[in-house]
Amino acid sequence: MIYRIKDGFVNVYIIDRGDHLVLIDTGIEGTCEKILSKIKELKKPLKTIIITHHHLDHTGSLKCVKDATGAKVVAHEEEVEVIEERTRVKVDVPVKDGDVIEGLKVFHMPGHTKGSICLLDEESGALFVGDIMIERDGKLYEVPHRYSEDPMMNRERIKDILNIEFKSIYPAHGEPVLENARKKVKELVEALEREK
Ligand SMILES: [Zn+2]
Ligand SMILES: [Zn+2]
């Protein structure tokens, strides 16, 4: 079961793993309260926080959620330093491409940031894409170039997504794409190809 918490322009996701919960990203600073009240409602402990990348709309409530739950913090090894520097929270488990954590397979997707990751829920085919792509009005787009460290490299990553066996796309910005997700990624790749 995947729960989405929307806070203004950004989503965080809570995955119910039966006896415990997993959080993907932590939103902005004020998102903490919403996350904690959802955890309380679900009556299960939060054991793991996975950060898709260091940007402040994904790590804004990291310290608050960590302090309240003691959950272990997971991020790509190339993102550890900047997350720790900006949030003052230790990354307990650095991961790399191909690792599986909490039933989620890690895909290293450098471009938006150097340690950006996507996470595939191997059971449901849900793919959490962080900021590799965003959704707007039922369509997928690349994140505006000014937000990416290397926008052209991020474009290559969008193509790489098609090599992953996913069924649905869960972006950090916009609505989850539950129907025709692969078709929509293909349409985005084609639109970017035409732009060249
Ligand atoms: Zn970002
Ligand atoms: Zn973002």
Automatic annotation (TrEMBL):
Alphabetical list of InterPro entries matching this protein: Metallo-B-lactamas, NDM-1-like, RibonucZ/Hydroxyglut_hydro
Matches recorded under CDD domains: yflN-like_MBL-fold (cd07721)
Keyword vocabulary terms for this entry: Hydrolase
Presence of the UniProt keyword Hydrolase in the record: yes
Cross-referenced Gene3D superfamilies: Ribonuclease Z/Hydroxyacylglutathione hydrolase-like
GO MF terms, alphabetically ordered: hydrolase activity
Stated name of the protein: MBL fold metallo-hydrolase
